Structure formats: C-alpha cells, structure tokens
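Lecture 7 notes: from sequence to structure.

We start with a single chain of 404 residues. Read the sequence below before looking at the structure.
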Amino acid sequence: MIEFLMPSLGADMEAGTLIEWKKKPGDTVKRGDIIAEVETQKGLIEIEVFDEGTIGELVIQEGTKVPVGTVMALINPIEVALETKKEKIPEEKPIALQPIEEKILEPISIEKAKEIHIKASPLAKRIAEKNQIDLSQIKGTGEDGAITKEDVEHIIAERTAIQKSERAETKTAEVPSENVKSVAQVEAIRAAVAAAMSKSNREIPHYYLEKRIDMTKALSWLKETNRNRSVKERLLSVALLIKATAKSLTEFPDLNAIWDTGLQPKKDINIGFVVSLRTGGIIVPAIHQADLKTIDEIMEALNDIIPRARALKLRSSELSDSTVTITNIGDGGADTVFGVIYPPQVAIIGFGSVSEQPFAENGMIGIRPSISVTLAGDHRASDGLTGSRFLVSLNNHLQNPEAL
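Now the structure, written as tokens:
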C-alpha cells in the first residue's frame, strides 16, 4: 500500500487545506494525474500523484487543514490491483434464469428531478449552499455542462456588485470573478515570500558575483531566427537566457542543488522562473528539465506557465520542484538585480535589463547591447571561484547561441 502524503510546496509551507478530491476510491491513477486541489498561501494548487495504482482509501475529508507530511490517501500499487482483480474473477457457472419481478416505481417530484439532473462539483455545491444560491439557475461551463467553482464564484461576485451599487445608489459595476479571491491570495503569497526571504537572510551565508555580457551575437541570432516566424512562434531573449543557464549548470552541479543538513545535488535541472503578479507580489513556478528542452520548448513552457501563474492555477510539482532560480528584470528595467536565495536552494541567477553600453574588446571601444548577470551563491555549498567559472561558462554559451 502506497501512502500519499500532503506535499511541501516550499520551505515556508506548514499545512494546506484540502478543498476537493479529484479522484475517488477505485479510480486508477498514474504519474502526473491530478488527485486533489489544496488551498495554500500561494493559492489553489492542483496536487499531482507520482505513483501508479488504484485509489484504495481517501483518508482526509474535504475542508480539512492538513499538515505537510500527513497521509491523505492510500493507493494500491498496480501489481496489487491486478492480483486483487484476478482473485475476484469467479469461476464460470451456469446462469439460472429467474422470473422477472414487476416493481412499481415511486413518482419523482419536480424538485427532486431538478436536483438529479444538476451536474456540479462537490466544491461548487458546498459554496452554493453556503451562499444560498440556486444551482438550477446557473449555466455550467465545465465538462458536459457541469457547474464549476468558478461559475458559482462568478454569481457571488455579480450579486455582491449589485448589493453594493444599490446601497450606494449608483450604477451596477461589473466585478470580474478573478478579483473575488485575488487580493487575499496575493497578500498571502507576499507573506509567504517574505517569510522565506527572512529565513534566507538569517540562515544562508550569501556571496555575490556580477559579470557584464555582450548580447550582440545572441540578439542577432534571435532576430534572424524570428525573421520568418509568426508573432506567436517568435522567441524572446529570456528563453535563450534560461537555456544558456541550464547548459552551464550541467558543468556546475553544486549550484543545482538544495541544502538540507548538507549539500544534495539534483539530477534534474528544474529552473524556477520568477513571475510578477499583476496585483503585486511574485510567484516562482518551475520549468522542468530545462537543459533537455530546446529553446522553442522553453518558450512554449513559458507561454503556458506564466498565464497560469498569474491566475494562481499551478500544479504542485511546478511549485515544489525548482532546483535553482532565475530572476529577470526584463527590458527597460533596472540594470542589475541581486537576488536572495530561495531555501532550500543554494543559488539564484539575476538578469538585468539589456541596454547599450560602452564595451572594450581587443583594444577597441564600441557600443554594444549588454546585460548584467549576477549570481548569489550559498557559501556552504560553493565558493566564489565556482560561481565565477559558472558566469564565464554562461557568457561562452551566449556568445555561441547557435550551439544551444
């Protein structure tokens, strides 16, 4: 029997509230399937399962606050499930014909019929009941017309807007459903990030390095690559920066690691990418196995993950699997950014804004598009020499973008 535990989605997480089970006993699950939705400081997170088998028992009830590491469900391994299924197959026996029993069915009331035909998620039903909302008046947007949590929240938002407008004797204002919970969630995310950064400053002995990199060749390669592409297919410089960082990390495993009673290098290079939220604050989802992805695949991952991050609709693995972090100011921002390591990671790489700067090479001075790259390292895991060599390697990769 496999124990499915409440996962840790960051060093700052102590517990999460189980909002809804996505699987039921008897369902078959495989790696990557969504088994539940959990509310944390970072919003409503889809929790993935990483084993194969059949759900045996759901130990925790919906609505329960669950500490990290608590057993939430029991899963029968795939081998056990197959053996159990074989044991239950009865021997073939002649089927005795039985007389048909005539039964008189009780009439079903109109109210009961409506209730039967209303398709809604358990969470949607619970929210509707709490707010005294008639589900029969809601048009579902889920699969096969099922009513979702978002459908109910949209009705609540509209009702709240109407009530406010009536009290103020003004026109009814349209309130987007996404604003119903966003403010509280962003404040919770800010608090979680602040707690993690405070822990980082207290416990991690940081060292900082900086290197200015000529981006002429990298930007020329991007321009040429994008020349015959549609707008949707074009690559951004950040995808190139992520790929170059991932390639360099393959040479310096001590930077792609976590510190947990000692240094623990990680096999996969899962780059956490800092995403700024529209209402303030940041969230850091992971781009898995960035070293094995092409630049196009990294761009696809960014196009997928950034909108979901800003909508606070990430998966548990995207919040918990990062092995190193990149923070990128973007064009038109500050020239240099010095990051704070997110524990238990041991490094963060910061990219400032690309700008035209005087650049000396072979005794000649010219104006080049340049970027300031910084490395904040954990002195328990590496030293300045390792960090310096990493930045040199990163520069070499960006001077040969076609090889990436």
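The radius of gyration is 27 Å. Keep this in mind for problem set 3.
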